[in-house]
TrEMBL record:
It holds the Pfam family Anthrone_oxy. The keyword Membrane applies. InterPro entries: Anthrone_oxy. The chain crosses the membrane at residues 31-48. It comes from Arthrobacter crystallopoietes BAB-32. Keywords: Membrane, Transmembrane, Transmembrane helix. This is Integral membrane protein.
Amino acid sequence: MTVFFGTAVASTAVGVGGLAAADAPGLVRAGGAALYLSGFLLTMAYNVPLNNKLAALPAAEAAARWPQWERQWTRSNTTRALASVVGAALMVTAR
């Protein structure tokens, strides 16, 4: 959990620093931080509650319901992964 929340805190710091710099690379870093954080928020708002609902069900019922949720969960998780990767790349490569 430290890594998961730590990267969100670090991204926030990078975003604030980028906005404070107010130059092109700083704004790219801030945009990357915002993109990264949007993926983090998507995970917290959508995937985690869905995971918790699924975990609360008896195993047989969870297995029966998973096909109904799989497409939405996978789409959200893929979106989160893309936002995180592109956001991190922008923060790292901004010059």
